[in-house]
Amino acid sequence: MSIMSYNGSAIIAMVGKDCVAICSDLRFGVQHQTLATDFKKIFKINDECYVGLSGLGSDMQTLRQRFVFRHNLYKLREDRNMKPSTFANMVSAVLYEKRFGPYFCEPVIAGLEPDGTPYITGMDLLGAMAPASDFVVAGDNTESLFGACESFWRPDMNPEELFETISQCLLSGVNRDCLAGWGGVVTVITKDGQFTRSLKGRMD
C-alpha cells in the first residue's frame, strides 16, 4: 500500500459563478481499520482562502501548523491577508524546501481573489501547482472522484447548485473507495461570506 493511502482521504475543490467550494470526507484510518470518523482535512486560512490536505495524517497536521504560522507572519508584516494565489505559491515553496525528504501530503487550495475571481489549485508532494478553472481532486481514489466531477460539473453554478454538485461528486466518489468516506464536510466561499455543511454518507 502507498504511504499516501495509509490513512485514506478524498478532497475536491470546485468553481462556480463568483464562488468556490471545497470538501473532504471525514474518515481517519490505518489501512483498512477505521479509527475516527470526524477527522478534519480542510482548514481555514482566512475568510477567502481554505486549504485541504490529503495524505499521511501526521504530515497533514504538521503542514497545517506551518501554513498558519507563515500566514500569520505575512499578516503581521503586510497588515493584510494572503490572497489564495499568494498562499498557493507559499505552500509550493514550503513543500519544495523538503523535496529530498518530502511531506507525504498533497494540498488543494480554494478561495476567492480580491477581485472576486475563484481560484483553485492542486499540488503534488514537491509543490508543483496545477491550477484549474473547473475542479481539482486529491486523495487515494482520484479516478472515481474525477469521473464524478466530469459528469456533474457545469460552468456558472450559483452557491447552492455548487454545494449540491460537489456533495454528490464526493459521495459518489467515496462510495467506490474503502479507504475514505463516513460522511463529509463542504465549505462554500462567496463574496458575501462562507457556509459549511456536513454530509451523511455510508457508514461501512
UniProtKB/TrEMBL annotation:
Subunit structure as annotated in this protein's UniProt entry: Component of the proteasome complex.
Family per record: Belongs to the peptidase T1B family.
Keyword set includes Nucleus: yes
Organism annotation: Cymbomonas tetramitiformis
Entry-linked InterPro entries: Ntn_hydrolases_N, Proteasome_beta_3, Proteasome_bsu_CS, Proteasome_sua/b, Proteasome_suB-type
TM helices/strands, residue ranges: none
UniProt keyword list: Cytoplasm, Nucleus, Proteasome
Protein's recorded name: Proteasome subunit beta
Annotated compartments: Cytoplasm; Nucleus
